[in-house]
């Protein structure tokens, strides 16, 4: 027989199992340390286990647009609300329609629950409108024959673009005479949109506005009267000011200046809307020491914004301002000194939360409908707690039966299986606790069911490996060669089985919504951990224990007794003795 080459490992051999054990031990210590360092030592719970808030929203249509409450718009609203809530890190939120005009939003208890409640029904209709006139909250509107008793309060400081912070940041304080301002307002209302007619794409209707007629004059006078009568200190008047106004029509609205004082605005037709905003986020401006909301426009939105700012930069105050109107309220009204295009920012009396909230709302788009909050109910975890208690009992019974089966059938090998199950359980718990603050994962009842199902998947991998080892022993091999030769065959089977389980979990996660996704996510996670545990713990531990007398000599309680397994005689050791006695024989071992 040819002598084997030195340093050559047997097929599927693992020369240093200690390395794999050290690797998984380091990973366990690091993950556990990270869990305690983060302060989140328990997994986040879903609404069925921890309780939370259930909100019922009822869609309402604007006058003359009753057909807008339809299935398409309702489904669009559901998607936007879900993205908003998840954008705050609130996972496991359930958003679904109920009937023709209701949406139910279930938000689990958590750190961002309050913010989510505030954002779910916010319409977030965003428009950029040119400012025609500004007055203090209770100040009468300027007219050609009246002289104002005082000027308007200072405007909020706001820059038109992040690239032009030093140039566009001004405080707008109307200083024109009442007569001049009144004539400007009247002419602006009758005239076409400030955007040039020849090339405007921002407001097609405004560019084709007909010449003033008697009905147009009446509409202008009515709007001026509405502006004069508006009292922005009255919450009801503020809320009603911008309701039911079409984007192509002039409007009146209220807003706060940089001093926190209410002002009223007379605004022209919308030139840019929220659909033209590509991305928005709340950031802290280090130079000015304040929170702002930055916005990036789409390609078409940049063209519209460039045209309107180019035209406004040639006007005098206050008609060189554009108002950023969100849900009928002016959140900022910056002056324009030069043409701007790619990006803009909203500044004012923002704090970190309000800036990030507004950025989140604008990023995910406006709701196609307006909603009234019908009810806000607190959901207790009593029912879910009872179900969880019953589920844990069922899981404990199942685990006990699995362990009992392993002890009876595999005897000493059951020790390895129980250790592996413990490692898998520890990793699953720690990772679930870390995923809560990291990606908003929340543990619900279906997720608990997925973890219980995973017990069987993990135990199945051990059984596959143990049976391959026993097959090798039945063929007459001793334990150490049997452990190494059985591993490649068992490894293929385990990988194929876990791949099928993971594929099923991935498909289930993609095609389902709500709580079922929790089941799919947990099943997929535990399937991946099964591979990690089998490769880095079960196999190395088996290789080390094969070197002990208890397992290596086939003790009757080891689960690897050759006689009990019906091993084929002679065993490998006997074969070697026979070969030595008979002389060199060209025989290959099976």
What are the key terms here?
single chain, 590 residues, alpha+beta, five-stranded mixed beta barrel, four-stranded antiparallel β-sheet
Description:
- The chain is of the alpha+beta class.
- The protein has helices at about 15-40, 45-50, 70-85, 115-120, 165-170, 180-190, 205, 215-230, 235-240, 300-310, 350-365, 380-410, 415-440, 445-475, 480-510, 515-545, 550, 560-565, 570-580; strands spanning about 50-60, 95-100, 100-110, 125-135, 250-255, 260-265, 270-275, 275-285, 290-295, 320-325, 330, 345, 370-380.
- Strands 4-6-5-11-10 form a 5-stranded mixed β-barrel, surrounded by 4 helices.
- Helix 12 packs antiparallel against helix 13, helix 14 runs antiparallel to helix 15 and helix 15 packs antiparallel against helix 16 (about 515-545).
Layout of helices and strands, plus pairs?
Blueprint: H1 17-38, H2 47-50, E1 52-60, H3 71-87, E2 94-98, E3 102-108, H4 113-119, E4 126-136, H5 165-168, H6 178-190, H7 204-207, H8 214-229, H9 235-241, E5 251-256, E6 262-267, E7 272-273, E8 277-285, E9 290-297, H10 299-312, E10 322-326, E11 329-332, E12 343-347, H11 352-363, E13 370-379, H12 382-410, H13 413-439, H14 445-474, H15 479-511, H16 515-545, H17 549-552, H18 562-565, H19 572-582
Parallel strand pairs: 5-11
Antiparallel strand pairs: 1-3, 1-13, 2-3, 4-6, 4-7, 4-10, 5-6, 8-9, 9-12, 10-11
Helix pairs in contact: 1-13, 1-16, 12-13, 12-14, 13-14, 13-16, 14-15, 14-16, 15-16
């Amino acid at each position: 027989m040819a002598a084997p080459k030195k340093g050559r490992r047997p097929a599927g051999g693992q020369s240093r199992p200690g390395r794999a054990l050290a690797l998984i031990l380091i990973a366990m210590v690091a993950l556990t340390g990270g869990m305690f360092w983060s302060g989140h030592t328990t997994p986040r719970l879903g609404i069925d286990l921890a309780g939370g808030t259930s909100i019922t929203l009822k869609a309402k249509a604007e006058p003359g647009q009753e057909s807008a409450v339809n299935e398409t718009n309702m489904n669009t609203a559901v998607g936007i609300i879900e993205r908003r809530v998840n954008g705050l890190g609130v996972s496991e939120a359930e958003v679904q329609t109920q009937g023709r005009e209701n949406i139910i939003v279930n938000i689990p208890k958590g750190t961002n629950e309050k913010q989510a409640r505030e954002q779910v029904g916010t319409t977030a209709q965003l428009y950029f409108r040119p400012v025609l006139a500004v007055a203090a909250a209770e100040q009468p509107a300027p007219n050609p024959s009246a002289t104002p008793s005082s000027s308007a309060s200072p405007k909020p400081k706001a820059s038109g673009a992040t690239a032009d912070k030093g140039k566009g940041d001004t405080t707008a304080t109307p200083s024109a005479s009442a007569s001049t301002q009144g004539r400007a307002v009247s002419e602006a209302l009758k005239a076409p949109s400030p955007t040039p007619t020849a090339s405007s794409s921002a407001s097609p209707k405004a560019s084709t506005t007909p010449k003033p007629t008697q009905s147009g004059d009446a509409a202008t006078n009515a709007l001026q009267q509405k502006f004069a009568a508006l009292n922005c200190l009255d919450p009801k008047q503020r809320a009603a000011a911008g309701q039911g106004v079409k984007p192509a029509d002039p409007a009146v609205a209220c807003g706060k200046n940089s001093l926190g004082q209410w002002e009223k605005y007379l605004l022209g037709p919308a030139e840019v809307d929220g659909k033209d905003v590509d991305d928005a986020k709340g950031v802290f401006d280090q130079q000015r020491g304040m929170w702002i909301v930055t916005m990036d426009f789409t390609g078409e939105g940049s063209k519209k914004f460039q045209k309107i700012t180019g035209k406004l930069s040639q006007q005098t105050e206050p008609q060189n301002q554009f108002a950023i109107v969100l849900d009928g309220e002016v959140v900022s009204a910056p002056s324009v000194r030069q043409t701007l295009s790619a990006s803009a920012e909203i500044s004012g009396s923002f704090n970190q939360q309000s800036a990030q909230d507004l950025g989140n709302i604008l990023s995910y788009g406006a709701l196609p409908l307006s909603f009234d909050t019908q009810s806000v109910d607190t959901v207790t975890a009593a029912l879910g707690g009872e179900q969880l208690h019953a589920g844990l009992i069922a899981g404990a019974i199942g685990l006990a039966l699995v362990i009992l089966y392993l002890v009876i059938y595999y005897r000493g090998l059951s020790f390895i299986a129980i250790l592996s199950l413990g490692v898998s359980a520890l990793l699953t718990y720690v990772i679930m606790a870390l995923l809560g603050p990291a990606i908003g994962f929340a543990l619900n009842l279906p997720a608990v069911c997925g973890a219980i199902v995973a017990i069987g998947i993990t135990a199945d991998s051990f059984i596959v490996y143990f049976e391959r080892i026993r097959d090798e022993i039945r063929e007459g091999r001793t334990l150490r060669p049997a452990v190494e030769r059985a591993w490649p065959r068992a490894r293929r089977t385990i990988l194929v089985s876990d791949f099928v389980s993971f594929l099923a979990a991935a498909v289930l996660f993609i095609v389902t919504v709500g709580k079922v996704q929790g089941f799919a996510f947990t099943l997929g996670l535990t399937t991946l951990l099964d591979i990690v545990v089998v490769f880095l713990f079960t196999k190395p531990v088996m290789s080390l224990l094969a070197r002990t007398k208890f397992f290596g000599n086939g003790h009757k309680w080891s689960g690897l007794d050759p006689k009990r397994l019906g091993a084929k005689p002679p065993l490998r050791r006997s074969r070697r003795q026979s070969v030595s006695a008979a002389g060199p024989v060209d025989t290959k071992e099976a």
